[in-house]
Amino acid sequence: MALSCGGVCRGASLILLFGKRPVGVKASLCTSRLAPTKHSSLWFVRHYSPSQARHGIGRSVVSSLKWANERYERFLQRRFPRFYVLYQTFMKGFRLLFQDGKEVGRITARMLSERIEHQNLPYRDMEKIRQVRRDLIKAIPLVILSVPPFANYVVFILMYLYPRQLLIRHFWTPQQLVEFQRVYHTQRAQHHWAIVKGMENTSTLVQDSRLKSRLSELCSKVKSGVHPVVSDVHAVRTLFSGPPLGINRMYADQKRHLCSLLFLTPRLPGFWIGRRLNNHALELMQLDRAIVRLGLHQLNDTELREACYVRGLNPGCLSPGQCREWLTQWLQFSTHLKGFA
Contact 62/8 with Cβ under 8 angstroms? Predict the structure, then answer.
């Protein structure tokens, strides 16, 4: 870890009382005007400031620590190059995490002072709060494990061996970020077939023959590898607001598959999973509304890929133009859902 020093004391001018008048005394030679007389109570004048002395000591300590830190980094880079890369990644991660924490604090303070509701925040502020909250939830178990004495050494080894499972994105290298996103997408893609198969089986319970036929066609199209258009999904959207495909009417197994698809833990009771799915859907809807207010063209390539990844698409093998086209279709669908105002 990088060596650091706390805040350095700041000095203040010394004020002495001379008779009834306050006189500011500076570090200088005593003149005859300040010589002791029978009317004065000033018999001694300090020729230096203790605060200034402490300030100089603080600067010296900071300089020494900075010099020692630079020597330590050069030693690691020369003798242990692989560990030096890990060290640099960790230091950068801590800086980014600290910056994100400050940014979320600033956003929260502005929400309180200006009485801004969460759904009315700009897109980048809303996304920052969402991501930091998920990062903290993932980091809490690691912090708890490091509490016992000397446990931090074991935790450091575990972080080195299992960075994807234990670390958050701040402590990943750019190569690891791409690799881990691909792994996570592969894991959630394993639930696609079960979700589509469950929808196909549930279509037999639909009473409306027209909706039943359209849902069967949609499932067959997805199973054959054809990407459905927005109108195909809009045609059956009413089935997902009530029985048999509403979140509160789904079977527990179907809810757990959806949780795995959305990076939510499926190891919860059925009623709790339903609440989490509802909250996540509302959060995505609010993010979509914020993107529309901002303008899709305002997102840079990184933000565009992250938005697609959160909504279920793997952007690793797509160009920015393809990601933008897919997200445009997503917004065309979501902006017509009930509750999107």
Answer: yes
Distance between CA atoms of 281 and 186, rounded to whole angstroms? Answer: 22
In the chain (341 residues long), the average pLDDT of successive 10-residue segments reads 39 34 40 45 48 65 73 72 75 85 94 93 95 88 75 73 87 87 92 90 88 91 87 88 83 89 85 89 93 94 94 89 94 77 40
Environment class of 308 (CB within 10 Å of its CB; exposed 0-12, middle 13-18, buried 19+): buried
Residue 19 CB contacts under 8 Å (≥ 6 apart), including other chains: 39, 40, 41
Q: Write the burial class of residue 77 (CB in 10 Å: 0-12 exposed, 13-18 middle, 19+ buried).
A: middle
| pTM for this predicted structure | 0.73
324 and 207 within one domain: yes
Last residue of a domain, one of 172, 203, 238: 172
